[in-house]
Amino acid sequence: MAPTLLSYPEAAEQVHLFIHALAAEHASQPQSAQSIETVLLGSATGRVLATPVLADRDQPPFARSTRDGFACRAAEANTHEYLFLAGRLRAGEAPSAPLGLGELCEIMTGAPVPEGADAVFMVEYAEHSHAEDGSESSPDFVRLAASRTVEAGENVVPQGSEARAGDEVLPAGTRLHAPQIALAALCGYHEVSVARRPRVAILTTGDEIVPVEATPGPSQIRNSNAAMLAALVEAAGGISILLPTAADQEEAVHRAIGSVLPPFEADLLLVSGGISAGRFDLVEDALTRFGARFFFGGVAIQPGKPVVFGQLPRLGSPALPFFALPGNPISSAVTFHLFAAPLLAALGDDTAPQPRFAMARLAGQWKGKAGLTRFLPAYCDFGPAPEVRLIPWQGSGDLAAYGRSNCFLVIAPETTELENSALVQIMFT
């Protein structure tokens, strides 16, 4: 049977140790062709790099102006004497000649700084003087306003200061989002090699569960957990595989657990429901019959206390990690974010698989008992000063409250009271 109740830090450490061992195992084995896919860059959002992205040339490939203004020698500009306007450079234009002594060049943001210039002063600080005849074709002279100075290097990004040709700019294990995709595009990658998405089998249990498209009877409910867990899995980078719901019968649960063993292919098993202490909570017994190794069998959290973590032996294949999640939907969601999501990320070769926490000010008050780490549905206004408020709820089965939330308020086990405006921790969902 599963080990005794753990604190949240102890349970998180068990998952971390499993992830660390998994990473070490992966590092000791060469990557197989089956574990890597090549996808178009435009389709790579949320995927994890299997091979690094390298700079194909210096970045920037030339000294680049960061302002509209005038490329100059800082020492000459700081004399506040008029300098000859030798030319104009737009982004995409190459300088025709180095900058001569006593000269400057009008330059636009992103344009290459001509050789000989070591600074750019902004156009707002320029003073113009035409030649004495005042004709439009006469040359311009420009100086830096007397109230301003410019330093060498100001408003100039040196060539290669962001990356040198051949540098690794994105390591393997990086999850790709808009910033990383932009960088890969800059380096000429129209497609990237990414890790195969982990396959996650989702098994829901319960006599009361009917398919979403069915009309439930008086004592039945639709299978919201399967839909929710599938969405969470997809958002975390996995592929969800929905299994038929298992009835609350010993042999039905046993057959359902057995169905995920070879030749079935899965990287992670999520079981929803059937893990409390009730007469029809049969999942742990079924897992035990298949020789499961348990890492923990409950965590001192609310909601989600009965969560179970372990692995099932598979003949001829690596053991299958599993989480048996409580059947109440908010309990399932909390335990997924805390434990299953980091492991799922690691199975997909993500090198930073952790829940995401932040700090905010509490709008309102809270009182409760000590002893459990609490994760309560909340809504955070992510303005200049993030402010979070609790969502009134009727317990961990209250999907309406979960639907109104965008985070969980995290309350430490020793805390019994929170005052208005207290600095609190939240977990992103």
Folded structure, characterized:
The protein is an alpha/beta fold. Helix content is 20%, strand content 29%. The chain has helices at 8-27, 74-77, 178-186, 224-235, 250-258, 283-289, 329-347, 399-403; strands spanning 36-40, 53-54, 64-65, 69-72, 83-89, 103-107, 119-122, 126-130, 140-144, 156-157, 168-170, 191-195, 199-204, 209-210, 221-222, 239-242, 268-272, 293-296, 301-302, 308-314, 317-325, 357-362, 366-367, 373-381, 387-390, 407-411, 417-418, 423-428. The chain has a six-stranded mixed sheet with strand order 7-4-6-5-9-8. A six-stranded mixed sheet has the order 16-13-17-21-20-18, sandwiched between helices. It has a five-stranded mixed β-barrel with strand order 22-25-24-26-28. It is elongated. It starts with 7 loop residues before the first helix and ends with a strand.
